[in-house]
Specification:
The complex is a heterotrimer of chains A (about 290), B (about 375) and C (about 280). Chain A has about 290 residues and is mainly α. In chain A, about 75% of the residues lie in helices and about 0% in strands. Classes of the chains: A mainly alpha (about 290), B alpha+beta (about 375), C mainly alpha (about 280). At the A-C interface, helix 1, helix 3, helix 4, helix 5 and helix 7 of A face helix 1, helix 4, helix 5, helix 6 and helix 7 of C.
Chain lengths: ~290, ~375, ~280
């Protein structure tokens, strides 16, 4: 936790901490507290009067089928994005981990999309799959699919999952590659001498040794799907059509900004906090385990 | 005058662990003092207390007639060489040596003179512009020494400075450190866990165990007359054979005239003091009947590992032989065969006697 | 056996090139579209080869902007993005390295409490406390200001943790040697710790620059004036709901321009980027 030998000074450590503590208090704790406080309040549409209503916002929230739909939708998004992006990235990482000529170049060419903003990724995919001018949409129509994400909810979901997963490939690839490279070559050599063929080596040695990385990435991808997809959704569908792409975070945004329902929005924020803290706790427990691994 | 005195020095950590349990000794000006002991014995802690890197719970540390308990490390007029050298990785060799002098506001020309002088002594003049990572282990070691020398302190402190070097280099640097210290005549305290290093370097040897001093003195004196079984088995390699006297059979061989023998519980005899012989035991000496278990030939000498019958118990101290095992060191390469039964004898004046708990030496 | 290996190698190369193609295709398409005129995109039969309007389109984008809802030149937006990304990266590094130094190298009352207070901020991204944060920024008069754009995004512990972790790996003896050399806390920080942290600071800078540049939700809320918009927000506003009005060549120029700085940072500083990414996630 700390150095064995330290400096002693009555004031200096506090002075050094001041900027960060000030920023954190002002822009983290104060708003977080406000969110919790507001979730207990009912504000009329004009913001003229507020009443303290305890857990009514939560109670109301939990009676709305729409909320459960949003929860379910968010988890479906997460699963789809994490699943597709992780499996494709793992395939690429396993290939790039082989002693190939130009493997450094492959890495460079595969990691740069990390730098593309989610919202920009959204715009790129809108354009590619735009029903009337998209190059890929043309192909889809040629295959007889009546592609229209602006009207068809399933199409909209697919579009967002594709864009979000695309953007996340490089991140997952990078961590898979690092994980693969951390596996001692001697272990694989031992397996080869024990007569395991390449495929078998992968599933019996590499994959089990990679599980810490996989688990870590699953959590990161879920958090990504929760929050960073906001930009993609807002740029691509705005939650539509007919709420087909309205995730929890997007619902907080819509209910607060457009609906003016700050109490409910705050209650949703608090619920989100709880979910994120739970996810993070799982991740930390796992990190603890990795240390002793 | 820069003698160092420790007066009833103690160190207790906040958790209640007592690392140093009251230590008293004095190092006269210009002497080379070595603290030796197994890991965890408190030797490094003690050194760091002298440096001012650890606080002193009670007692006094006195450097050159000034109690320094509350004095900042930088103001104690000491210099330290660390085990991992602790060179500033981003500074050149020159700056590594000059840094401490600059912080003290020494004029530039004088810093330059001192650094170049030290570099010359240590033969690192050609490396002054390099960074530590461009140096070999031995060269880094020299820079670390240089950083201490330029300060011209009252006391040098060495914290296992050679343990990161390979065996050959370690011997060479050991000789060099000794030569350097003789030349500079600076009082030095040197911590090591290597008894050979301790024996060869020390004017004053302090053997420590469990936060306490087991024995202080001239290294050869300690070798000849270890005060406890711990010292007996720690100093000297291979270690002294320690044989419990509970059986009475061995005691009977040499009991003879001495009154003190009755109080003895442990008999010690160094491997080199044992002779393989078929002769009868000299008066007051001992004879051990052994079965040869293993032979180690190292060239100029051979170690014979034998076992005594009917021995039991467990070894208490680190480095001590398993009970019943006896090492005999014989010159040359001719040795008995494995499985052969031999007799090893030692005259009375080569025997060491200790109390049953091993804490006290009994003179014969 | 040898043949099989050669075949397997071929498969690996093949799969990797497919991956690269999938990853690059949307961006390539954006670049192609940014060099065409609006009409050839609008008819839905866009060519897959670059057109001849490259200079014309980019000049218009940077200096004039789209003629739709936002008329702000993209050059201004790029500048705003740059200021925001730099301020977030530098600000976060500066306040984090100080607090990490304090927590690792000093012993003082409430040390652990303060550490946890900073640490917990890791758990909640700005998205979950968005409205209260917005309100506070508004109360401080920070709407449409660079301070408002950056400060709330600086309030997180990632960098503090990274520096803390790095400081823990710096050998204690270095501090002890400094103390023997007569260096006090500030001098040790400046002469030794800061130079040693250079690589970590650079790696962190790369990650935070990209993080800052790509921010979306917060700038969307905090900026109301068009001339304070960042490029990521600007591009979103160029896509109008009525398709006919969207000037796709300009949108795609903006997309390319918005991607260029962070992508260049990743490619040019790849080693630092990989290091920063792996370290911050530990």
């Amino acid at each position: 936790m700390q150095k064995q030998s330290t400096f002693r000074s009555p004031v200096l450590p506090f002075l050094l901490l001041t900027p960060q503590v000030a920023v954190v208090l002002l822009f983290f704790y104060w708003p977080a507290a406000q969110a919790v406080w507001q979730s207990f309040l009912l504000q009329d549409a004009f913001g003229l009067s507020t009443t303290f209503i305890w857990f009514e916002n939560y109670a109301e929230l939990l009676t709305q089928p729409e909320y459960y739909e949003a929860v379910l939708r968010t988890f479906i998004f997460s699963a789809a994005i994490a699943g597709s992006s992780l499996s494709f990235a793992l395939l690429l990482a396993v290939m790039a981990d082989k002693p190939l000529r130009g493997s450094g170049l492959y890495r460079t060419l595969l990691i740069w999309p990390y730098a593309v903003a989610p919202a920009v990724a959204g715009v790129l995919w809108i354009f590619m799959l735009h029903p009337s001018l998209g190059v890929l949409a043309r192909g889809l129509r040629g295959m007889g699919i009546d592609w229209n994400p602006q009207l068809n909810g399933d199409h909209a979901v697919t579009l967002i999952v594709l864009a979000a997963a695309w953007k996340q490939i490089s991140y997952n690839f990078l961590f898979f590659l690092a994980g693969l490279q951390a596996i001692p070559k001697s272990v694989l050599e031992a397996a080869a001498i024990d007569g395991a063929k390449p495929m078998r080596r992968f599933w019996t040695v590499t994959f089990p040794l990679l599980t810490p990385t996989i688990f870590f990435l699953i959590v990161v991808n879920i958090v990504y799907a929760f929050f960073d997809t906001f930009g993609i959704i807002d740029a691509m569908t705005g939650g539509g059509p007919a709420k087909a792409t309205e995730t929890l975070v997007y619902k907080v945004y819509l209910d607060g900004l457009l609906g003016g329902n700050l109490g409910s929005s705050a209650a949703q924020s608090v619920m989100l906090m709880v979910i994120v803290v739970a996810l993070t706790a799982i991740q930390f427990r796992y990190v603890e385990r990795k240390v002793t691994y | 005058m820069s003698n160092v005195s420790l007066r009833n020095v103690r160190k207790t950590y906040p958790g209640g662990f007592e690392a140093i349990k009251g230590i008293d000794f004095e190092i006269p000006d210009g002497q080379f003092c070595v603290l030796v002991g197994p890991s965890g014995c408190g030797k490094s802690t003690l050194l760091r207390m002298v440096a001012g890197l650890e606080t002193v719970t009670s007692g006094e540390i006195d450097i050159g007639g000034r109690v320094v308990n509350e004095v900042e490390p930088a103001d104690r007029d000491i210099a330290m060489v660390f085990q991992n050298y602790a060179l500033y990785p981003h500074m050149t060799v020159y700056n590594n040596m000059a840094y401490g002098l600059r912080n003290r506001g020494m004029p530039k020309p004088e810093i330059d003179t001192r650094v170049r002088e030290a570099a010359q002594i240590l033969e690192i003049t050609t490396m002054l512009d390099r960074k530590p990572r461009q140096l070999s282990g031995g060269q880094r070691q020299r820079v670390a020494m240089g950083r201490a020398i330029v300060r011209q302190p009252k006391v040098f402190l060495f914290d296992e400075p050679l343990s990161n070097l390979d065996a050959k280099l370690r011997v060479a640097m050991r000789v060099e450190i000794r030569k350097l210290q003789r030349r500079l005549k600076t009082t030095s305290i040197y911590v090591t866990h290597d008894q050979l290093e301790a024996m060869t370097l020390a004017d004053i040897l302090v053997v420590m165990n469990g936060g306490q001093v087991e024995q202080i003195g001239n290294p050869l004196e300690i070798y000849r007359k270890p005060a406890t079984t711990f010292v007996a088995s720690f100093i000297g390699a291979p270690p002294m054979n320690l044989i419990p006297l509970d059986g009475g059979e061995i005691a009977a061989q040499f009991a003879g005239d001495s009154r003190s023998v009755a109080a003895a519980g442990v008999l010690g005899v160094r491997p080199e003091d044992l002779l393989i012989s078929t002769d009868a035991t000299a008066t007051g000496g001992i004879a051990l009947d052994l079965t040869v278990e293993a032979i180690e030939r190292v060239g100029p000498e051979t170690f014979v590992y034998g076992s005594r019958e009917g021995a039991h118990g467990v070894s208490v101290n680190p480095g001590e032989l398993p009970p019943g095992e006896v090492i005999v060191r014989i010159p040359g390469q001719i040795a008995p065969a494995i499985g052969e039964r031999i007799r090893a004898i030692a005259p009375r004046d080569k025997l060491h006697l200790f109390s049953a708990d091993g804490r006290a030496r009994i003179d014969i | 056996m040898v043949e099989a290996q050669g075949f397997r190698r071929f498969v690996a190369h093949f799969i990797l090139w497919i991956g690269i193609a999938i990853v690059a295709f949307p961006v390539y398409l954006a670049f192609v579209a940014s060099t065409q005129d609006a009409a050839s995109i609008a008819n839905g039969q866009m060519s897959l080869l670059p057109g001849s309007h490259l200079i014309e389109n980019y000049t218009k984008t940077i200096f004039v902007g789209s003629s739709g809802s936002t008329r702000e030149p993209v050059g201004v937006m790029l500048f705003n993005s740059l200021v925001m990304a730099l301020a977030i990266a530098i600000g976060k590094i500066a306040i984090s390295i100080l607090s990490a130094y304090s927590i690792v190298y000093f012993r003082f009352p409430f040390r652990m409490a303060i550490f946890w207070m900073i640490f917990i901020t890791l758990m909640l991204p700005v998205e979950v406390r968005i409205y209260p944060t917005y309100k506070i920024a508004a109360d401080f008069g920070m709407l449409d200001s660079y301070a408002g754009l950056t400060l709330p995004l600086i309030a997180s512990a990632t960098a503090t943790l990274l520096f803390r972790q790095f400081f823990m790996t710096v050998p204690d003896e270095l501090l002890e040697a400094s103390r023997l050399d007569g260096a006090g806390p500030l001098r040790f920080f400046w002469d030794t710790l800061l130079p040693l942290s250079r690589t970590n600071m650079a790696a962190l800078f790369v990650i935070l620059f990209i993080y800052g540049w790509n921010q979306y939700l917060w700038p969307l809320l905090i900026t109301t004036r068009d001339d304070m918009q960042t490029v990521v927000i600007g591009i979103r506003k160029m896509i109008t709901t009525t398709d006919a009005l969207t000037e796709w060549p300009i949108v795609m120029c903006t997309a390319v321009l918005a991607m260029l700085p962070p992508v260049a940072v990743v490619i040019l500083m790849q080693r630092l980027f990989v290091r920063g990414l792996v370290e911050t996630e530990k």
